[in-house]
Amino acid sequence: MTTPTLDTLQLLALAAALGWASGLRAFLVMFAVGVAGLAGWVQLPAGLQGLASPVAVGITGFLAFLEFVGDKIPGVDSLLDFISTLLRIPAGAVLAASVFGLDHTFIAALAAAAGGSLAAVSHGAKLSTRAAINTSPEPFSNVGASLGEDALVLGGLWLAWLHPVLFFIALVLVLIVMVWLARKSFHFVRGLLTRMVRMFSGRPEPVATQPPHGATDVPFRDKAD
User: Fold this and answer.
1) Which among 72, 71, 82 has a CA at the least distance from the CA of 189?
2) Residue 74 to residues 64, 84, 156: CA-CA distances in angstroms?
3) What pLDDT digit, counting tens, does each position of 56-89 carry?
4) pLDDT tens across 120-146, in order?
5) Three-state secondary structure call for residue 33
6) Does residue 184 lie within any of the structural domains?
7) Which domain does 157 fall in, by range?
8) Is residue 219 part of a domain?
9) Alpha-helix runs per DSSP H in 84-139
10) Is 135 within a domain?
11) How far apart are CA 79 and CA 136, in angstroms?
């Protein structure tokens, strides 16, 4: 049975998908790519074929399982996200570059830069958003957000392989939402930490000053006017 090969547009989409998705789930990305290649669903580029070996699939599958479980536990997920900063961004760069391999050094270097940048954006959005979600005492929002990220990763890889044009359109929209969520979550967490520091330090909350009774916001004007 022959497997479909990837054309140039699919390679570009795959590199972008690997970089972006690695910022959310590095081990799940490696495992999914390895399974797809081992099962013969796709013809992997030469630089990614090492992930399709049974040993690599077993190792990445075990690590992906640990990542899957830990990411559903409030508090543990944010700890894993913080630690994984040293893994996900470089993984996104390496996987994106591996799509083109050493035969296309310049393109691979550009892919590494783009993949690492996309991984940084998605990882930053995940880190800040999950930190904001963890301020809620109930665990269901964590589980829902984590399952949504799992679906995004697998759906993004599938879309990049089969419908690269749609993937790029979806990627632009998702990046816009991620940047917006990251900004909102960052300001929320920063405000919460500021209130906590003020509370534990014994400093009072700032009180908004009110204008004197009868005063108006109309600026003073000279009587000659």
Assistant:
1) 82
2) 18, 16, 25
3) 999 999 999 999 999 998 888 888 888 888 899 9
4) 999 989 988 888 887 776 778 888 989
5) helix
6) yes
7) 8-198
8) no
9) 85-98, 105-133
10) yes
11) 16
